[in-house]
Amino acid sequence: MKIIVVDDHIAAQETVTAALAANPATKHHAVTGVRTPDELHLRGDLGTFGLAFVDLDFRRQSRQSGLFALRLLDRARVPAVIYAADDEDNRVLFLLAAFRFYRPWALVSKRASGAEIRKLVATIESGARPESPATHRYQPSHRGIPVLDRLIIRAGDIPIWRALATQSDRNAIAEVTNVSRSKVDSFLSEHFAIVAEIEEELLFRTPAEPFPDTQALGKTAHVYAHRFAPLHSFAVEHHRFFQDAEVLELIKERGDIRLAPGSQATPRRRR
Amino acid sequence: MRTVDDPQGMFNTALNADSRLWLAGSWSRGALLAGMWGTLAWLPAEELPWGVVQLGVATVGLLLGFASIAPGGPEMAARALGMTGLARHFGSFGRAAVDVPGVAEGLGAFLAGSLYAGWFALAGFPVAVRSLGLAMAVCYGWQILLQTVIHPGWYSLDIRPGRTLRALRYVIPAIGAGFLAFVLLPWNSAAAQVPVFERVLLAVSPLVFYPLWAVYDIMLRASATSLRNTQNLWRWDVWGDAHGSVKNSLVFLNQYIEEPDPDLEEIRSLTRNALVVLDEFKGQLIGDRTRDPAGGSVGELWGSVLRALGSPRRVRCVLDGESAPVRLSATDYQVARRVLPDLVSNALKAGASAVDARCSVSGQPAQVVIEVGDDGTGLTADDISDPRGSLRMLGAWLGERQGGIRHSANATGGTTAVAYWRADPAHDREPAGLRSPALAEHGGSAPAGPGSPAPAGPGGSAPAGPGSPAPAGLGSTGPGRA
B306 vs chain A: nearest CA distance in angstroms? Predict the structure, then answer.
């Protein structure tokens, strides 16, 4: 089987190569690699690969993220596994998006041993889906609206998320995103709960203390102050995700989500 | 000004404007003063000396103001006035204080205004000239008040103004308005010639400083907020870069060590690689390294390798001048980052006092060649034949890239090692501007391999070629890939 590793470090490719070469049972696999999703895009032989290991963040090497690589691989029908650390909190949205829009076969840590890599490749070669407990955290549940869909309900949310990272004043956010202040307020109230949920359930953080006194501030001011700070910090931490052009593209393709109370998520497809 | 966005008091933003605001104010006051000097042309000869004296005070004050900003200016001005001790009272930038130029200009503004209105106004001005002169004098006073109330020194976090000074700041506009009202009272028929409307308007005008002050504070707070936001984003960005480069290198090192029976030479090599990555990260952080998403130059890599190995000063290490600008693709750069530290490290271990290196990318298909020569003790037969020796391991590693490594004894002593590998295909897809000079020069023709005559290094001690066939011809001798 031909395997391609999409990772900005050649060490990733070498780790996979060394792992497979170390055992006669997996020695026959041919491993190659590209440093960026852009390089992957330039390859004309994508369809010949039986498996791809894909990193998610390419920092200085590329403007594209691993989500673009997953799109290319999905188009070429190449099974992909995510080969990335999920120990960094600012990767969590990339992982949620990867599992929301595609069906990666596994989430493999860069710390995975040679034996684990060999087992994974052998399982995929046999056509079976490998057991990958780590993926369960990021896979959308079968019931309810996926976490990512609640975080980005419509394409218009992305400019507000971007502005939330660079501005810390709702007037400024309204100005740069060309929406009304009340729209910013409703964005904050709409997204407060899902951010708290991600922080608590995926990042294992203690939720912020609820404000004990609502009388000291005016009600609107209180609600604003209460919701703004956590969402601003969240937007700063995940700035790269919200800046990613591929995320915007995926959300546009998905369409807006209807959040009618009690209803299931129903994407309104635009194409 | 301490704000919630700057609890540690790190952003001394206002002080950056200190000297520029001062100079701009001084020049605009200079223009107004010149205008007031011009009005003296309409004064009868007998009143002219009074006019000169009254404007003279403001003029001296303004010159002292200019002197206070010039290096050595206060001392020179104090000597010219015959009072050397005065230099200490010229104030200093970066803090709020009552100083000699300020007091002289304040008094000068009062006397200048009193030329046209007030209880000792000169009677000889025509009405129009008097009104114009008065307006200029009030603008002059305005400028002084502006510089006093919105002085960056009030916001200094290092030298905070005392409580009395801060209290004084609140009443300065009111005092200014009181002064003006006093001057503008119709003390005599000459002063009464100025329309009442103009006098009232000018008298209350300093009160505008209160809202101006508020606006200034809001903008300063906003700039601190903006800085804080930028700093927060920057911190996450830096951490992202640190993670993507340094941490990942260590993760792969750690992953290798955790494997059963890891090889010590490979651990050494991965550790050197991580040290080079760390140095590159420092270069990106402090900005002396090009942000090159498509790889990097050999010159930059060479600098990082030497710093990572701690050798640039103890041993004379020279990279060939033509090699420094050679740019490598992202993949080839990373291969070179493993190869170069290993070869230089071997040379240093052999006790070399001089190490010369060169790198080229040439041939069709393109091949990267790195050549490192040294004047050390040379290799023993054991070094070469040890299957777990670094050279053998490096050779096997390069074999994965259709390359290898060769070494030979130099005629003058020491060793020359030549590492080569098939350039990453991405290299061919790079824009022409990013291609190596060697490739551009040779076009598609056969390159000069390490076996061909080598150009003399900068130190004139270019290592002799290994004397074996060019690696271009050995491209298929490695294990290769399927």
Answer: 21
User: CA–CA distance from A190 to each of A71, A90, B109, B225, B268 (Å)?
Assistant: 29, 22, 59, 25, 53
Chain-wide mean pLDDT for chain B? 79
Please name the residue that has the structure tokens 């960094």. A88
Strand partners, A32: A4
Does ipTM come in above 0.90?
Answer: no
**pLDDT for B52:** 93
Q: Which stretch of DSSP H or E encloses residue A205?
A: none
Residues of chain A with CATH 3.40.50.2300: 2-136
Task: Give the chain A residue whose CA is nearest to the CA of B296.
Answer: A61
Q: In what order do the strands lie in the sheet with A2-6?
A: A30-34, A2-6, A51-54, A80-83, A107-108
How far does B226 lie from chain A, in Å, by closest CA?
A: 7
* Cβ pair B426:A39 closer than 8 A: yes
- Provide CATH code, domain A2-136: 3.40.50.2300
**Across the interface, do A9 and B236 touch by the CB < 8 Å criterion?**
no
Predicted confidence (pLDDT) per residue in A213-237, tens digit? 555 556 666 666 678 888 999 999 9
At the second CATH level, the architecture of B263-474 is 2-Layer Sandwich (3.30)
- How many Cβ atoms are within 10 Å of B79's Cβ, its own excluded? 12
Q: Where do runs of H (alpha helix) occur along chain A? A: 10-21, 37-42, 66-75, 92-101, 114-125, 133-136, 147-151, 157-166, 170-177, 181-197, 219-237, 239-243, 245-254
The residue with greater pLDDT, B241 or B190, is: B241
Question: Testing the interface with B: which of A36, A60, A173 to mutate, by most B Cβ within 10 A?
Answer: A60
Dist. CA B240–CA A161, nearest whole Å: 19
Domain boundaries, chain B: 14-229, 263-474
**Which are the contacts of A130, defined by CB distance < 8 A and separation ≥ 6?**
A105, A106, A119, A120, A123, A124
